[in-house]
Every structure is written in structure tokens, then in C-alpha cells.
């Protein structure tokens, strides 16, 4: 989702969605569906659970649309709804099998080489839920540290600690597998 697909979500569109304009809401769902499912899949590791979580998130967005007070915070608010839907789905089906066919990376993502893409997918499967959430919010959703902490419901320091731990574990796993990451990822 991040900046590349947020370009069309204008404050006018957010106002229309929040006021109950079904056409604007449907357009938002169509445009964001694939990215929302992908984000949920990165957390849940199961395509069917990810689709259900994304569907629940969009339903909750529509039901709660009038609760958003500051339209400038729509992006953070939507990610909070999306992450909460993924967490609820996780609690409902904690032992579901992973579906490896889902594409982890968008072609426009920062890490775009095929071998690295596969290695990152495998390495992320070895991360804990909290670590994976921190990475997903930062690198796949393109949120700032502050935004990601808000979305996750963590203190900023807790978020940064989990992100640093996730980076270390991911880098270690990729090095063990003979992969390298771009310097920017390792140093952030």
C-alpha cells in the first residue's frame, strides 16, 4: 500500500468515504484490495486467512467510517483496522498451514530481485509474529517508525526494538543462506 498506491487517495475521496459515499468506498476497495491482502498475508502466512482478514478490514472500515475525526490520518487509521483484522484472524486460526503461492513482493518494492525475493519470503517465515509485523509495517506498507508504532499499538521504543530485532534475525538468516541485502536495509 504505501506511498505508491496512496497517490489517488485524496482528502476529498476520504471525506466521501467517511460520509458514506458507496461509489468512493467501492473504488477504494478495488484499488487497495491486492495490497491489503498482501499485507495480511505477510502477517498471517496463509492466503485464505489473508483474504478473509482483508475482507473483514474493509467491512470494519465501512462500519466505522464516521469515527475518523482527522481525515489526514486516514492512512494510519486504515492500517490499524487492517492489522487488527489480521490479528483477529490469527487468533481464530493459529495453526493453519502456510500457502506459499502468494507473491510477497510487489514489483515496485525496494527489494526487487527474484532470488532475494524468495530468500526474504523464506526468512520471514522464521520470524515471530511481532517481528514480522514490525517489518511488514516498515518495509511493505512504507510507514514511518512513528506511524508503524501507532498502527501496531506499541510505544515507539518497543516498535524500534522489535524492528531492530527483526532486521538482525532476517539479515542473519539471509547471510546463513548465502544472500545479501542492500546496505540501506542493514544500516537502518
Query: Strand fraction band?
Result: under 5%
Structural class: mainly alpha
Cα Rg: 16 Å
Number of strands: 0
Task: Give the CA-based shape.
Answer: globular
Query: Terminal Cα separation, in Å?
Result: 21 Å
The biggest beta sheet is recorded as: none
List the keywords.
mainly alpha, Rna Polymerase Sigma Factor, Chain: A, disordered N terminus
Written overview of the protein:
With 188 residues, the chain is mostly helical. It folds into two domains: 1-95, Rna Polymerase Sigma Factor, Chain: A; 112-188, Arc Repressor Mutant, subunit A, CATH 1.10.10. It has helices spanning 2-6, 11-18, 22-44, 47-63, 74-92, 114-125, 129-140, 145-152, 156-176, 183-187. The model is unreliable at 1-6 and 96-105 (pLDDT under 50).
Write a brief structural summary.
By secondary structure, this protein is mostly helical. The protein is 69% helix and 0% strand. The model is unreliable at 1-6 and 96-105 (pLDDT under 50).
Reconstruct the topology from this structure.
Layout: H1 2-6, H2 11-18, H3 22-44, H4 47-63, H5 74-92, H6 114-125, H7 129-140, H8 145-152, H9 156-176, H10 183-187
Helix pairs in contact: 2-3, 3-4, 3-5, 3-7, 4-5, 5-8, 6-9, 7-8, 7-9, 8-9
Amino acid at each position: 500500500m504505501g506511498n505508491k498506491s496512496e497517490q489517488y487517495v485524496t482528502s476529498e475521496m476520504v471525506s466521501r468515504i467517511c460520509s458514506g459515499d458507496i461509489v468512493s468506498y467501492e473504488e477504494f476497495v478495488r484499488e487497495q484490495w491486492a495490497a491489503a491482502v498482501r499485507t495480511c498475508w505477510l502477517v498471517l502466512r496463509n492466503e485464505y486467512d489473508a483474504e478473509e482478514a482483508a475482507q473483514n478490514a474493509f467491512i470494519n472500515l465501512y462500519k466505522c467510517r464516521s469515527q475518523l475525526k482527522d481525515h489526514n490520518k486516514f492512512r494510519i487509521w486504515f492500517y490499524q483496522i487492517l492489522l487488527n483484522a489480521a490479528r483477529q484472524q490469527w487468533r481464530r486460526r493459529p495453526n493453519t498451514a502456510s500457502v506459499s503461492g502468494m507473491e510477497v513482493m510487489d514489483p515496485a518494492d525496494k527489494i526487487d530481485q527474484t532470488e532475494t525475493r524468495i530468500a526474504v519470503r523464506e526468512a520471514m517465515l522464521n520470524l515471530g509474529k511481532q517481528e514480522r509485523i514490525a517489518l511488514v509495517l516498515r518495509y511493505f506498507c512504507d510507514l514511518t517508525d512513528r506511524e508503524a508504532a501507532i498502527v501496531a499499538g506499541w510505544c515507539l521504543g518497543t516498535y524500534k526494538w522489535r524492528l531492530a530485532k527483526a532486521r538482525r534475525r532476517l539479515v542473519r538468516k539471509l547471510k546463513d543462506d548465502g544472500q545479501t541485502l542492500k546496505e540501506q536495509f542493514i544500516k537502518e
